Amino acid sequence: MLDFEVPHPDAQRIRTAGRDVLSLALIDARNHTLRWIAAFEQALGAELRLPAAAAALEPPLWTLARIGWYAEHWIARNMQRQRGERADATQPKLASIWPEADRLFGPASLAALRRGEHALPELQTVRQYLVDTLETTLELLDAGDGDADDALHFYRLALFHEDAKREDFAVLAQALGVGTGLVGTPATPATQRPALLFPATRWRLGSEPDTGFVFDNEKWAHEIALPEFEIDAQPVSWAQFGEFVEDGGYDERAHWGEAGWAWLGRETRRTPRYVDQLRQGVLQHRFGKLVRVPLAQPVLHVAWHEAAAWCRWAGRRLPSEVEWEAAAGQGASRGFRWGDVAEWTATTFRAYPGHPSASNRAGAEAGPDPSGAAAAFASGAHKAMRGASFATAPRLRHPKRRGFAPPERDTGFVGFRSCAL
Fold this sequence. Notes:
Blueprint: H1 9-14, H2 19-44, H3 60-76, H4 101-105, H5 109-114, H6 123-142, H7 149-176, E1 196-198, E2 201-205, E3 222-226, E4 229-231, H8 238-246, H9 258-267, E5 275-277, E6 282-286, E7 289-293, H10 304-314, E8 316-317, H11 321-330, E9 342-348, H12 363-366, H13 373-379, E10 383-387, E11 403-405, E12 414-415, E13 419-420
Parallel strand pairs: 9-12
Antiparallel strand pairs: 1-4, 2-3, 5-6, 6-7, 8-13, 9-10, 10-11
């Protein structure tokens, strides 16, 4: 079992990796993508057609093809790729090796697909596109000008974009009830560790300049005065969440905020998503199988509303982003455990001070923003998540990495931990 109490070594190394390491990583990422193609083909057929009940989900064939499009768009077709972040995202790109690639997989393509304005190509065409774009990427990387961060920026960006899709595919497989054999399960902690107390400090939240690749939403590190706080050493377990359910937590209005109570009414739910039974043990549907879940494992597939309700019931609160990051940065030797589930925080997802303005790019659609963070910043409707799940690619398991989702989202591999009031 991997130990995720400290940053995964691949997540530290890859942000500053040179061409040799980066080349191997790009091959590894594409091999994982091709394995997902084979798994979805076996489960859904050669057209990767979603069942009618899942028609609102992102079509897997489009998502797979867009991995190749994204890499080609920002590397092979980008005449300014050597400039890295100094490149002008608005400059026209070279033609694709697939003449219809922009129409089929560009920024507006998914909406057009849903309107019935075009159809997706055959699976074998997509598979070949992925093979061809990787070959071109590797050739350009090998012929590039040294290991400077600017020269490697877009290669690292394309790698992280593809790595992130690995978890998206796992979320889709869970939603469809498809067993692929490509995803594990959360680790089961041997013991319940006591909460940790951290003294008041000044913490630099975010990533520092000149540290290799940095995601836009981590820019830039800025100092925050952090009062003393107590935080759980590990995420809330099924056993702990089950006490909330047994105590009627889903029926007591006082535990829920106004938006959470309205969401609960719409969902008519009394357990987290995919749970079949939560009394006298946990039975949960995982990738198409109903399994008995160890009570010591972290609770999974909870919305932010559920996490906040549990905290109110328990007389605790969700941690802020800065508390989570400070604890992860200082608590490894004291038993702070993370990496089994992504974790909700109390923080609304917003840009850090000094974040690159969207006006300096072409905006969230045209700029190289694989996470969609710019649009989330603008909406102000998302909650920040931290950590990583068992389905997260190891290269993305970094304590500075930020995630986000609407507070009602419960399809991801997300749990939470709590702080003392």
